Each structure stands twice: as structure tokens, then as C-alpha cells.
Amino acid sequence: MPKPNILQTKELARAEKLLARCNLPFTILDNPDYRSFMEKEVAKYVLPSKSSVRKVYLEKTVAKKRKEMLASLDGKSLYVMFDETSFKNRSIFTALVGDCNSPRTPYILGIQECETVNANVVAQTINRWLQKTFDLFSLKVLLSDGAAYCIKAGKILKEFYEDLIHIRSLALGL
After folding, report:
1. Cβ neighbour number for residue 130 with a 10 Å cutoff
2. How far apart, in Å, are the Cα atoms of 46 and each of 4, 27, 155?
3. Which residues contact 174 (CB under 8 A, 6 or more apart)?
4. 51, 58, 73, 109: least buried by Cβ within 10 Å?
5. In sequence order, what are the beta bridge partners of 165?
């Protein structure tokens, strides 16, 4: 009797949750030592490849989280906090969004690799991400560090969101 394929069971969801909660990269699924251990210890399941998990389940998980985010933040006054980091000649721009009146953990609004990060890129990217998801007039607070491009991005965004308060900090408190 052939082993049931993990993609055909609820085990895929459990595997994805396990990897995410244990902060394990999907690449572990292609590690021969890990596969050997799991195939011996959990003999009734065939482990999926990282590609299968990413293609089949990750997209569903992201869509579920997006629905959760929209339901949680719909009609609320929002804050956006953003930052940029450079690593090995790559700049990664990230923005988080949350409810101004709730202490809940913020959601990822977006992550983007950029050739350069400047005030215009920041303002345009935040606007684009917000337009895809929320009522534009719900943005009330912008949190950033005190870098010159962040200050300028705040001024650009204030032209679009007249009630916007830009809070600049050396440490975002993350």
C-alpha cells in the first residue's frame, strides 16, 4: 500500500504551521538528514518539498492572513511604520500597518527590494500599498527614524493625508 501524499492531507497545514512557529526555513524540507529522520519517525507520511509547501500552502496562508488583517483594520485609524535596511548591495524597504487605538501587533503592509530608497520611493510605495488595501483617508500616523529621506517622505505623504502626524524616532521601539 503506497504512503499517502502529505499534500493530500491536512498534514500540509500542520507542517507549515510547525515550520513557521519554530522559525524553521522551508529549505529544511530538502535537507537529507531532516528528511531521513522524519521519514523514519513519521513513516506514514511523505514529506513535501519546500517548493510544494510554498506553491500549495503558503499562498493560502498569506491570503488568510490578508483577510484577517483587512477585517481587523477596516474603518480604523491607521499607523504605518517603515524602515529600510541594506545588506550585500541590496536595499529592502518594509512597512507595517496597525490600528492607532489598539495595542495589537502590526501587520506587514509590504516588503520590497529597491535599487535605491529615497523619499519619493518611500512615499509612492506606501501610497501604492495603502491604495491596494485600505481607505486612503484612514492613515493618521507615520512612524519612521530620523533619516533625511524619512523626514522628506513624511512631508510628501502629509500633502496627501492632511491629518497625518509624522513621528520620527532614533529607535522605533520594535
Report:
1. 23
2. 7, 16, 54
3. 81
4. 51
5. 141
